[in-house]
Each structure stands twice: as structure tokens, then as C-alpha cells.
Amino acid sequence: MPELQRYSSRNLPRISRTSSALQTAKRRLTKIEIQDLHHELETTDHVIPLQELCEKLNTDPENGLTEKEAERLLLKHGANVLTPPKQTPEYIKFLLCMFSGFAGLLWCCAGLCFLLYVVGFLFEEEQSGVEWLGMIIVVICIVSGVFAYIQESKNTKVMESFKKMVPTFATVIRDGNKLRLGTEELVLGDLVEIKLGDKIPADIRIIRCNGLRVENSSITGESEPVTRTDYATDINPLESSNFAFFSSFAVAGEGAGIVIATGDRTMIGRLAGLTSHLEKTETPIAKEIKHFVHIITVVAIIFGTLFFFLSFVLDPNIVRAFTYLLGIIIANVPEVLLVTVTTCLTLTAQKMANKNCLVKNLEGVETLGSTSTICSDKTGTLTQNRMTVSNLWFGYTRYTFSPRERIGAERDLLMERPAFSFFLKNATLCLRAEFTAESTLLVPIEDRDVIGDASETGILRFCEHIHPTETYRERYPKVAEIPFNSTLKYQLSIHSDTSGFILIMKGAPEVILDYCSSILTTDGLTKDMGPVDVQSVKRACTELGYLGERVLAYCDLLLPPNTYGPDYEFNTEEASKYNFPTKGYRFVGLISLIDPPRPGVPEAVQKCRTAGIKVIMVTGDHPVTAMAIARKVGIISEGHETKYEMTLLADNQQSFTHIPDIDTDAIVVTGSELRSMTSNHLDNMIKNYEEIVFARTSPQQKLLIVESCQRLGEIVAVTGDGVNDAPALRKADIGVAMGITGSDVAKNAADMILMDDNFASIVTGVEEGRLIFDNLKKSIAYTLTSSVPEMLPMLASLMFAIPLPLVIEMVLCIDVGTDLVPAISLAYEKAESDIMQRAPRNPQYDRLVNKRLISITYGQIGMTQAAAGFYTYFMILMLHGFLPKKLLGLRYDWENKAINDLEDSYGQTWTYKARMDLLNEARSGYFLSIVITQMIDLVMCKTRRNSIFHQGMGNWFLNFSFVFEIIITGTLLYVPGTEKVLKTMPLDIYWYWPCLPLGLFLWTYDELRRWCIRRFPGGIVERETYY
């Protein structure tokens, strides 16, 4: 073998370092390049003759590339690294957040405040407090912008996760010399050696191997190691056994291969490029808020502009006109909408975190509630990702075990069967898996760490439940072994016994049967195997295979001690030199394993069905296995036959113990079938079938399925744990990654992480998401209600020239003061009904803000609140001598500082200061009336359908918000100094009562409205007022 050499960085050719730097420069892919990444990997490099491949790549299967050729290729193709996409600078993101939503409008309002202050200062007009108003608006804009930026900064850093998967060094042969190079130096045609524990440094074609097995979960999503060969087994590189992918892990054996793709052109590179360049779909809640922002912005601008020109026409005072413009905009715009929504979503996210759902993107909280389709991975999500013994077959009898229950009564039943002792010995001894030294007897068997592959681990744990495996191994020590390989398809071990040696073989049933001439009977005896016995074994294999289980067969042979003495040396190196019998074995039995469903998953799938959510399985596993799990968890209903199953029945021509009635509501689609479908065909299939299983799918195909669902108008959630799931997780409306088994790439690409890896936790998230959407509606309805009583005083003052009943400062105190905490408190409101009994909302019709909500808040409740405010305003002025008739047209004289003898309705004269104090008292009354009626409105907004007596007052945060409102209102009215900025005055206790009759009317009206909705579902009241 050539001597291993190591290249240091200073010995590397300069061209290598330069090319590497160029290759890692950030760039954004073109649309054509991104579209190409959507397609599956297509290549024939793994199927063409080896000699042709070597000629194509100018390499040699023994000596590899020449150094000169390697340098040329490195310059031409670049380094074997993943290129990060071009990123938007952080300051640009920050600025965009600062001017998103209502922020642009509010910045204009702040600028207008400062302009008014400057103009008032120059013209010596009183603009007391307007500069403070501008500062408050600036603070609101900054806080909202920071909130938005924090959410924006949580965007996934997918490329960094992909880079962590890349190995550092590789063993390469060039010019016949074995070198240890950095993986970035690899080029097309390099000859790479692979051994146990290595990460595959590029996409390679295997040309030599010896028991090589690789863990390919980064591409396929399946954790079971797969055997690699030096010959192609499929035209599809994802399915061919002579193809090893960049970042895969060698778990057994050794081999060598030729590099056929590097860097961004590898399968993992294509996934990284596709994932990082996919545009994230705008969340439903973001769309709803944008829709709401557009409505309110248009209303604010239209009314503000109208008031501006109307004011200027009636009174050509530009400062006053701008003041009305500013007031109308502030009255209409919910300044703390983003803070309220973000806080509500954060509170829900905290509740979900306590239920094992960690939310990365807060908007994903509501998105999950809007989900209409869930595309779920199988392994580790629906299943436990732990191979478990499910069935035994020996003595012509099948024994089934539930993965949810510990072996108890079954153990006693098995031990009563004479044949079982032979089966247990076979299963325990022909087993390479073992518990780690750190595992102790104090640790439950299911939690002990095991060295071995998934299937052998399941068998070891099963045997340990029955009898301590170490006892068997000490009693029957292993003296020789043939490990499992893909060529032989069996594993053989020879053990010493007190009476000689026992040979045990385990492997594929069809292979094991060829070695057997006898069979173990129920009573533990041996009889010759006839055609009926062979048929019984095959029927059992077919039935277990139909269940999607992995079936292994056992056989044994007692070696006579007179031929095989205690010192006999067995030769297991070459088949031609085997010095032990290879025929005439005794067939002992079958064992089948399956990765069982997680507890609670079938119930969760049923809840999804009840909630109108379609659950689609999308997996890289075999169709039969996928179909079996789909049946067990309820994705395919009992009695629903699929075309795939009927094909299996026809091919096997076997009689099953149970064949469901034929039904066409379910379908199983393989990756090869999906590959031949057009987009329209795929769309129609997803639309027409309620129960769908996609098996043997590639990462690109998972993405196609998600895009198809989105084209049909579905809100799609995708669950996954592997790198292969990253594109689909990224493209989905909400990506859900597994917290325990999930890769870093999957977690970074997702919006939510299930900390317990349990699909059932998603249902909890859906319920919380639906609840927060309902509660956000209530919160927005509560927030919008005060807009009308805030805006009408300006209209009345303008149209009838009455002294302004409410100033801008008070409007802002309501919007960002008394209303803030109550609006947030509605996020804690419990569900009015079983929200998982209704279908997902239709984003086209069930909007966060609709015309019915506007009608209720503006036209009914808002107008009544305004009436209450005006009533208190006029009452205060009237009891001090100014009747409503007298107030008409009095605004200009009232605000004239030069007039100090203004007469009221009874001839009393008022100085400027006295009447302004009186006006501020009336304004405080109007302000107080809004606050009180908003407190009543808060109770009304607790429920949209139920009676408040049924809903109850159990929301402790909402109850606290009443105290909060009282404290804030008291502070604004009675703390000295506030009157200078807010133009408030302390009020006597009797001014708290004038608004109460109208508040009581509101409450009675709303109770009656909700009663009509419940009593006459679908009637005119529900159609016109249920928001």
C-alpha cells in the first residue's frame, strides 16, 4: 500500500487556496439555477462502465488522478465547499422593520408633531405638549421596530448547519500516493478510501468495498444503515447501492470510490442551495395583519385628508388643519398593534413550550392553528425510531407483541412452549449487538445504550426481557462468525456447547430456507421439512411482510463432537474453504421487527381528522412499511384498500388471514410514480384523495408535494427531522422539526421544534393556534372600538364649532395606556367551544378583520361609546352654565385668549383660564366615559358566541387589567402635573355615573345579539354580526 502523506497548508498549491476563496464568495443563485435545484439529481456516472467513467474523468481506478490534473480541475470547478448565499445587511433589515406596517404612517405623525411645535413656536401659538406627543410616537415606532427586528433576526441560518456536516479530512490516492487532504481540496475523479467511522467527503461511486455500510439519513431520512456495493442496482442514484453521498457516515466495513460530484453539485450541496434560496411563504397571520394595516391606513389617510381640507376651508389656519390631520390619523391607527399581537403570540408560545412545542417564529403559533394539511415524516415522528420485535413464528404458530406493553404474561406463555427455548437460544447467540459497559442492570432495558444496528438492538432488548443475554453468551461462547453482508444475506455464528458446537444462522427467510432440510415442531422436536412446511413458512413471511415488518429467519445445526472436537478451528474467511456443513440445517423460526407508532399518535391523527386537517405521510421508507404504519396510526382508515396493496396481493397470490374490503379513498404513491406525474396530475390526486402515503420520496419530491398543497390553497405544516426534510420544512407555511432526533439543519429550517419528537404534540399546537386566532380577533375588536369615540369629537368640533371634546394627548393615553393591558389579557381567554371540532378557517373568507367586525366595533359599540362620552361632556358643561345650543359655533371665541368675559347660557362671564379649566374637566369626563365603556366592552369581547354567564370571569389576567385601567386612569386624572401635558382635570365621583346607562345598554344589547346567534344559527344576526 502507498505510504500515507499529509499536506500542510503552506505546501498546498497557491491555486488551491485562491480557488477556495473564490468559491466561498457569497452569491445569490439565478432563477434558472434555483429551478434546476428543484429537480432530482440526474446522473449516469454510477451506471456507466468503470472504464468509461475513468476515461471521462481522466483518472485511474488504482492510482487516482495526477497532481497536475487535480490542480487543473480545482481551478476549473472550484473547491469542494458549500457556497453561502448572499445575505441582506442587518442594518437594511433593521430599517425595513422600523418602517413596516403602521410605522411609516406613525413616523409621519411624529414628524408632523415636531413640525407643529416649530410652527407654533415661530408664530407664538400654543401647542402645549405636542412635542411630547411626537416623542411618545417615536418611542412607539422604535419599540415596534425592535420587536419586528427580533423576530426577523430569528430567521434560519441553514447554511451554517450544512457546513457542520462537512468532514474535515479525507484519504485520497493521487499519483499512486496515499494522501491525507482537507476535503475542500477534493476534485472530480479523485480516488477516495473509506473506512469505518469516516464521513463521505464528496459524492462518490463505490468501485471497491468489503462489508461497507453507510448511514444515509442525511439524504433518505431513514436511520437504518444501508449496504454499499461496487455495482449499480438502480438507475436512480438515490436508490443505487454503489452511490455514497457527501456527509454520509460509514458505520461498517471499508471501501474506495471515485469522486463524481463536489461542493454545490453534490446531493447535499443541492439540498443546501435549494433550502437557503427558497423564499419563505408569508404566514397567514402576517397576511391578515397586512390586510388590516392596509384597511386602517387607507381609512386614516382618507379621513385625515378630508378633515384637513374641511378644516382649512372652514378656518384657513394651517396649524389647526394639520392638528386635525394628526388627530384623525392617531385616532384611527392602533399604535401598539404589533406589540399587542407579539405579546399575545409570545404568551401562547410560552404555553406551547410547556407542552413540548418550542416556537422559533412567533407567527408560526397562529399558522399551526390555520393548518389544513400536515405532511408528516414517518421515522421518528409518527414512529419511535426504535426497531421493536413485533412477531415471533415458530412451531407453526405466530405470537404477537404490543410495543406499548412490557413483556409480562407473554413471557410465561412463551416459556411454556418447548420450542421457544431453542428459538431464544438462536436469537440471543446469533447477535452482534451488546449493551455498553456503562449500562447497568438498574437502568430499564429500553433505556440502556446498545452497540449495534437498529434491528439487532431490537432483538437484544427483546431477548433481555425474556432472559439475561449475558448468561447465554457465557454459557455458549462464540468461536467463529461470518458477519452479515449483502452478498450472502445471512449472518452465521458458531458457539461451543458442553456436547460440542452449535451453528446458528440468521438472515433473509428465502435464503435461510435453502439451507434447511428439517424444521422445529411445536413440542421442540425435529422433523423433515416437506412442501407443506415450506409453504407454511412462506405464508407467514408474506403475512408479516404485508404488515410492513422486517422479517428474519433462524436455523441451527448441532455439530457432532466426534468430528468437531474441542480444539477444532473453523475457517470462515472464504466460502470455498468452509470446513463446516453448509446444508441440512434445522429451520427454527421467524422474528419480525417494526418501528412502532409513538403512543398517542393514532389518537392525534384522529383528532386531526375531526378538526378537518388532512394528514399525509411523506417518507423515504419502503411503500409496504409506510403503508403498514399509516394503517396503524389511522392515516389510512380501516377497510380502505389501496391499489398498491391489490398489486401486492396479485403478485404474491397468497391467502391472507385478513383482507380489508376494497375502497378507493386511500392511495400509496412511490417516488418513481411521482417522478412521472405532471403538476396538474399531482394536484388532482392530492385534491381527490383524503388518505395519501408517499413512499421512497426524494427531498425534491417532498418539496413538490408541499408546493402542490399550497397551490390548492392549503395551509401546510411539514414535520421532519433529517437534512432531506430541510427544503420542505423551509417551504412549508410552518415547518416542525424534531427536538431529540432532529438534525441541526432541520431545526434551523423549521419554525417550530417538538421537544419530545411526538406528533401528538402538534395537535396541542393546532389547538393553541386556533385559540389565539379567536382571541386576537377579540383583542382587535376591543382595540378598534375606541377609534370612533376618539375620532367623532374632532368631527363634531369641526362641523359644529364646539370646543374640542377630546385632545390628541388623551387619545394616545387610551391607545397606549388604558387599552394596552386589557387587549393583551384577551390572549388568556379560554376557548368558547371545542375548537378542534370545526374545520380549519378559510383564509379567503375567515379574515382576522372583516366587515362584520368593522360594523360591530365602529358602527354599533363605537357609536354608543361616543354617545356616552358626549353625554358626559355636555352634562359637565351644562351644569356649569353652557347649554348645548350655546356651545354651537363657540369654539373660536372659547379658544381666543383675548376674550376674558365670555358669557354662558345664564349670562355668567368666564375668563380664558376659567373656561379652559372647565373644558379640560369636560374633556376628562369624555375620556373617563370612554375608559368605563371600554371596561364594559372588555367583558363583552370575552366571548363572540357564548353568554358571559357561561364563559365566566376566570381569566385572572383580564380581571387584573380592570385594576390596571383604574390605576392608570386615576393617575392621569388625579396626579398633579398631568393636567399640563394631558389637559386633564380631577373629577368628582358623580361624573363616573352618566355613562353607565349607555354601558348597561351595550352589555344588554350584546348579550341579546349572542343569544340570537346561538338560538338561530345561520340566521341574519349571525350572518351580519358574528365576526
TrEMBL record:
Residues 44-118 form the Cation-transporting P-type ATPase N-terminal domain. It comes from Odynerus spinipes. The sodium/potassium-transporting ATPase is composed of a catalytic alpha subunit, an auxiliary non-catalytic beta subunit and an additional regulatory subunit. InterPro entries: ATPase_P-typ_cation-transptr_C, ATPase_P-typ_cation-transptr_N, ATPase_P-typ_cyto_dom_N, ATPase_P-typ_P_site, ATPase_P-typ_TM_dom_sf, ATPase_P-typ_transduc_dom_A_sf, ATPase_P-type_domA, Cation_transp_ATPase_P-type. The chain crosses the membrane at residues 94-120, 132-150, 292-312, 324-347, 861-883, 953-977, 989-1005. Belongs to the cation transport ATPase (P-type) (TC 3.A.3) family. Type IIC subfamily. It is found in: Cell membrane. One of its GO terms (cellular component) is plasma membrane. PANTHER family: SODIUM/POTASSIUM-TRANSPORTING ATPASE SUBUNIT ALPHA, SODIUM_POTASSIUM-TRANSPORTING ATPASE SUBUNIT ALPHA. This is the catalytic component of the active enzyme, which catalyzes the hydrolysis of ATP coupled with the exchange of sodium and potassium ions across the plasma membrane. This action creates the electrochemical gradient of sodium and potassium ions, providing the energy for active transport of various nutrients. This is Sodium/potassium-transporting ATPase subunit alpha. SUPFAM superfamilies: Calcium ATPase, transduction domain A (SSF81653), Calcium ATPase, transmembrane domain M (SSF81665), HAD-like (SSF56784), Metal cation-transporting ATPase, ATP-binding domain N (SSF81660). It comes from the Eukaryota.
